[in-house]
Structure to design on (965 residues):
């Protein structure tokens, strides 16, 4: 049976329907492919290949028929174009990689594929995951389903828009400084970034290797926990992958919040925070109090240094990570050039967009002889201070709560001309990225122009289960995560 | 003015792992271009490096062999520069904290020994190769070599002549093969040296401006390049000029060095710790286990040869010039423990000459250490003269039969029967009264002529020592 609202179902519901054979994986695939097609104006997808999707769906149905299925077999998923895939082009939102076909799948894609999930296609994003509005994609803007004049956030703007519009029940995403949480907040969905080192980076096109973390966009915290179970795990191909036994992220979802200590960092409620966002966040905190949690005032005095630290470390790593895009072995190669050096220069000049170029320049500068100690080393020292502050804070509380963004989603072009104000969008998300702790955004209301507001939850290293518990209990008590933009 | 030369060497030893340092692909030399390269070596989007522990173990072995400090925590860094055969746009190397620091090597020039200090040894990956000749108007890129593990071994500027530099390079070359970390094949580029050369007025303790000379893929080129460079720098200064710090390339065809790039053109490599690799942690257990598995080192073996076998230091040095010759010698002595000096002479003389002539390694010699010891035993017991032994040895080299079998077949047994020799001597004395008279009138040369006649009568098989003795006794009588 396929009802009108099937696309609004949670993954848990879809899973039950699939295992009861009330809906087939092929039927689900058709449903979402049709929705993708109907909402092409969102520009969320960069590559859709129905024949690939339907073949995977048929294979999932075969597994379901012979009893070889996992809870995720037959559930459709779409991947941020930062993850390389054999069956779909992998562009990282860059002209440099237009049409690039990878000979292998990213570990995250592999893991979800092995669980039987069916790939819907590849999702638009800021070029090489650099941006906070998806306006840096070489393949055009993605529209926010709640308000098509607003940005969907970035860099995982395709992922957030797709899940918000329910043209995909779940999407992978990556977060380097807020690229999961900020777009999730802007589009009223649940965005989850696990502990750095928990998901494998194998097959993720690198932006800033010490920060890049794979995660998920879902309709709910419960869905995030279900998919995270299959997505993360030790991978010997990634030297920064952490060798810990697998765990069940759903195990403590149902636990009541009585006695949970929720830390509220005063620094996250400063002058930069818009009143509409603050009001929604304060209301959410009240809800937590009502659920039995204790609110604890905490302090993260160095968190405000997160932005300058981040804009040294991330560009430094990106300037090196993007050096492989030289037009020699793959990717864009200039048509006319005089010699090898000129070929590399022109190919990069033509293939890379303005934001990667800006960050490469910043990165090359901070790493250059004579500046390295003053910028890179100093930034790494402050980064450690910020991590230490979180460690201290988690002695006083179990979960930290606060805003994800300073404001609701802004309009196209509003910040594009002012990179620094764009960079400030990540004020509250960057500290958690620098520390490498798990964090997430859950919808908690609406602000100006009826645009969604996200509540950020952060937990200690490897404490995803507790963070998801806090999110799930909130979602049991509220309906924000169930709301779907009008027309979707 | 008198000038002093100051030389430091940077050596890249390709480590003898079966697979690359970060990708697990085979390192075998000579495959079709780009067939020994994986997605990691091609630096495709999304790939990551994983360190090969075999390369680290080899670095530990070198550290132990040179008495250096093995850092329990070292860091891999990215050296950033663009070149078409550098697929990632950076080379993974070690910069601030290398795996090995300090230590040194004792070299010998003539009879003089000298200790050359090492600055450091660090692990890094090799780049690919650009092939500019094979494609008209285009360049080819072969990434088979990309990611091959290298150990860059840097010396202090402790050498004062090209001879010392060559002695150091040879000694290091022997050592890396000895401890099994590098095959030492210079033609294939497995062992390459760059030389930092400067000159200063003799007696000065300030270093002059140095030039780095590249492309030194043989000991001869190393020597010639340094000699040219020293002449060039002295000439420059004596003509009122100034040495400019730069990188120079040695051209063996013209036997000169040429400027490649000056310090002003030197790139800023923007080193920083590679975020894809955790710091390299080496546990004490690992170092200890490696230490236990180390072979006896050439310096220790050289000393042992002098004390245990009473060999001259020069011979002991020659016999420890390589693991193969040392092993061969030890095997010979095991089979003929009473004659180490005889074993040494034959190995350094006859065997080395033939191995060089046939251009084969000692391992491929058709005569084993045991078979050679069998031959030498027949010299020691008087069965063969040295000359006869050489004849037998030739036959052994050609045919591979044992010395005893050949002696039997050819009837080469030396005549050591005193009675038979007496008879032959008597006959020769009787037949050559003129020579006897000459000898007795004081012409010593006549004695040799008489020996020759006895040996001729014996068709060369008479024991020469006995012939001498009998002849002498009879003439003096």
């Amino acid at each position: 049976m396929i009802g009108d609202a099937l696309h609004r179902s949670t993954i848990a519901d879809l899973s039950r329907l699939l295992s009861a054979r009330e809906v087939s994986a092929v039927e689900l695939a058709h449903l979402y492919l049709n929705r993708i097609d109907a909402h092409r104006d969102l520009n969320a997808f960069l590559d859709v290949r129905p024949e690939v999707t339907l073949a995977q769906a048929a294979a999932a149905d075969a597994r379901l028929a012979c009893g070889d299925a996992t809870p995720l077999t037959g559930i459709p998923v779409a991947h941020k174009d930062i993850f390389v895939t054999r069956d779909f082009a992998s562009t990282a939102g860059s002209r440099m990689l237009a049409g690039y076909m990878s000979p292998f799948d990213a570990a995250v894609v592999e893991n979800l594929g092995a669980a039987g999930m069916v790939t819907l296609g590849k999702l638009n994003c800021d070029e090489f995951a650099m941006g906070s509005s998806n306006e840096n994609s070489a393949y055009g803007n993605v529209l926010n389903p709640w308000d098509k004049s607003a940005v969907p956030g970035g860099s995982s703007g395709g992922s957030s828009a797709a899940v918000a519009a329910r043209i995909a029940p779940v999407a992978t995403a990556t977060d380097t400084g807020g690229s999961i949480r900020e777009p999730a907040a802007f589009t009223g969905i649940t965005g989850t970034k696990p502990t750095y080192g928990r998901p494998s980076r194998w097959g993720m096109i690198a932006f800033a290797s010490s920060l890049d973390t794979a995660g998920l966009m879902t309709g709910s915290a419960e869905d995030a926990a279900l998919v995270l179970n299959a997505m993360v795990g030790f991978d010997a191909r990634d030297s920064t992958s952490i060798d810990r036994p697998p765990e069940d992220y759903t195990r403590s979802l149902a636990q009541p919040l009585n006695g949970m200590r929720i830390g509220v960092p005063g620094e996250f409620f400063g002058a930069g925070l818009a009143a509409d966002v603050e009001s929604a966040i304060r209301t959410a905190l009240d809800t937590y109090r009502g659920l039995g949690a204790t609110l604890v005032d905490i302090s993260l005095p160095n968190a405000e240094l997160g932005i300058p630290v981040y804009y040294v470390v991330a560009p430094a790593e990106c300037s090196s990570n993007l050096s492989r895009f030289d037009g020699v072995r793959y990717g864009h190669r200039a048509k006319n050039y005089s010699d090898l050096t000129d070929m590399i220069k022109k190919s990069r000049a033509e293939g890379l967009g303005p934001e990667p170029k800006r960050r490469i320049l910043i990165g090359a500068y901070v790493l250059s002889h004579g500046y390295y100690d003053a910028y890179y080393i100093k930034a790494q020292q402050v980064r450690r201070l910020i991590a230490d502050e979180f460690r201290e804070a988690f002695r006083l509380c179990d979960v930290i709560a606060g805003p994800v963004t300073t404001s609701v989603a802004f309009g196209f072009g509003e910040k594009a001309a002012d990179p620094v104000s764009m960079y400030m969008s990540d004020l509250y998300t960057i500290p958690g990225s620098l520390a490498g702790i798990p964090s997430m955004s859950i919808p908690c209301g609406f602000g100006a122009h009826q645009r969604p507001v996200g509540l950020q939850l952060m937990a200690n290293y490897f404490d995803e289960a507790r963070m998801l518990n806090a999110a799930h209990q909130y979602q049991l008590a509220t309906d924000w995560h169930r709301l779907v933009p009008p027309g979707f | 003015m008198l000038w002093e030369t100051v030389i430091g060497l940077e050596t890249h030893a390709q480590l003898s792992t079966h697979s690359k340092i970060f990708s697990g692909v085979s390192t075998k030399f000579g495959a079709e271009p780009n067939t020994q390269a994986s997605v990691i070596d091609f630096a495709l989007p999304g790939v990551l490096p994983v360190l090969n522990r075999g390369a680290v173990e080899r670095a530990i072995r070198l550290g132990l062999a040179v008495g250096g400090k093995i850092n329990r925590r070292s860091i891999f860094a990215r050296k950033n520069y663009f070149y078409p055969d550098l697929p990632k746009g950076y080379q993974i190397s070690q910069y601030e904290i290398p795996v090995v620091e300090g230590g040194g090597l004792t070299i010998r020039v003539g009879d003089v020994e000298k200790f050359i200090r090492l600055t450091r040894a660090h692990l890094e990956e090799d780049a690919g190769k650009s092939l500019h000749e094979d494609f008209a108007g285009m360049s080819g890129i072969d990434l088979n070599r990309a990611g091959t593990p290298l150990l860059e071994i840097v010396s202090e500027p402790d050498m004062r002549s090209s001879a010392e530099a060559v002695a150091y390079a040879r000694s290091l070359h022997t050592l890396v093969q000895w401890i099994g970390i590098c095959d030492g094949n210079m033609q294939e580029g497995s062992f390459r040296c760059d030389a930092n050369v400067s000159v200063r007025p003799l007696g000065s303790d300030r270093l002059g401006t140095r030039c780095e000379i590249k492309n030194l893929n043989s000991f001869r080129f190393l020597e010639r390049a340094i000699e040219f460079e020293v002449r060039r720098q002295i000439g420059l200064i004596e003509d009122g000029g100034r040495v400019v710090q730069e990188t120079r390339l040695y051209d063996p065809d013209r036997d000169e060095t040429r400027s490649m790039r000056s310090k002003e053109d030197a790139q800023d490599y923007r080193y920083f710790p590679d975020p894809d690799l955790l710091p390299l942690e080496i546990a004490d257990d690992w170092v200890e286990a490696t230490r236990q598995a180390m072979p006896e080192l050439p310096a220790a073996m050289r000393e042992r040869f002098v004390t245990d076998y009473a060999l001259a230091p020069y011979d002991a040095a020659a016999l420890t010039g390589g693991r193969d010759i040392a092993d061969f010698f030890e095997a010979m002595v095991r089979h003929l423990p009473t004659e180490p000096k005889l074993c040494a002479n034959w190995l350094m003389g006859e065997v080395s000459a033939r191995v060089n002539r046939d251009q084969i390694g000692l391992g491929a010699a058709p005569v084993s250490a045991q078979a050679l010891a069998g031959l030498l035993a027949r010299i020691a017991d008087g069965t063969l003269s040295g000359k006869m032994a050489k004849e037998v040895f030739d036959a052994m080299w050609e045919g591979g039969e044992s010395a005893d079998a050949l002696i039997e077949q050819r009837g080469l047994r030396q005549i050591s029967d005193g009675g038979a020799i007496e008879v032959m001597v008597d006959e020769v004395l009787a037949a050559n009264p003129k020579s006897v008279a000459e000898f007795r009138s004081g012409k010593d040369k006549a004695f040799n002529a008489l020996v020759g006649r006895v040996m001729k009568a014996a068709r060369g098989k008479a024991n020469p020592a006995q012939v001498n003795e009998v002849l002498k006794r009879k003439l003096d009588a």
Notes: Chain A has a mean pLDDT of 97.
